[in-house]
Amino acid sequence: MIDNAYLSYSEGKYEAAPQRRSKKPSLAKRLKVTLFIVIPKVVYVLLACLVVIMWEFIQLLLPKKKKSVKGQVALVTGGGNGLGRALCMRLAKEGCSVAVCDIDLPNAEKTAKDIWESYGVKAKAFRADVGDESSIAELRKNIEATLGPVDILVNNAGLLAFLSLSQGSTEDVKRIFDVNLMSHIWALREFKPGMYERRRGHIVAISSILSVLTSARSISYNVTKAGVKTLMTSLREEIILDGLGDCVFTTCAYPTGILSRKDFYDLMKSMKISVPYLTPERCAGYVIDAMLINQMDVIPGFFPAKLAFYLFPLVPASLARMVTNQIVGKVPELMKSPAKDAKQS
Length: 345
Description:
Elements: H1 27-61, E1 73-77, H2 82-93, E2 97-102, H3 105-119, E3 123-127, H4 133-146, E4 152-155, E5 159-161, H5 170-198, E6 201-206, H6 219-241, E7 248-253, E8 257-258, H7 262-270, E9 277-278, H8 280-292, E10 297-298, H9 303-311, H10 317-328, H11 331-336, E11 342-344
Parallel strand pairs: 1-2, 1-4, 2-3, 4-6, 6-7, 7-10, 8-9
Antiparallel strand pairs: 5-11
């Protein structure tokens, strides 16, 4: 059991770790360690990397068989509008019963109604504030009482906010973090144990291309989406460590522009940001298709976005900034006219 001493505080009770002076090893000992420990490990890692890279390349060439999710219960947060609604509709098309969760209950109810009329599968709307832990706990109980245990969790709800670091009230910033990042953690803590117990499940998270292609006028948003990226990478490793890597899967999506809200599109147009946009339906198609083949990461959209996602962390910041300016327009124009209000996507 790990000691959580760092979670508590006792005034004046700080004890430094013991400081030990290590004696510099002799040349003979260093050579022995290098020849018999370091070099064999380096060779092993290089050979392992070569094998993994070749295997991954072969996997890219082989056709992927899609799994069936028919009859499973899927929960989509932020399912009343935009991408969330499109994800609900696509999961219903795959035969899932859908729990449509949104703080906007009327639109969630409309999505549930459209699911029934279009595909004839069970769908129910639930109102919940995903940024509130107790609300998520209540949501799980209500879903299990009406539709059954959740097999597919789609953490989609988010607040898109164009705010510099100095803009927005304390409450605004906390709200962005609660909805965009903490909601994923609360939902995972509620729904993952059931997946573990049944040895079946898939967790989908919607991050953003801005988790890598960062912008100076959406710092809180960028940080939360980068947090989602790290959360999903760490979660996958934890699932494997727990021995359930072959039955509980994860998919993290990094969309670019989505044509969902008119006010958002008008804002981007006024700032002369010319990124290629996807319809919510097309973006949802990319995400669910990736989920059905247990793909861990998906960048919905066009090739330049996929290339930028993988290359930008490797290039100098000055080069990344120059390329970004060419892709999305002049960043200074964006910095002159930031929107002051957070908008819920």
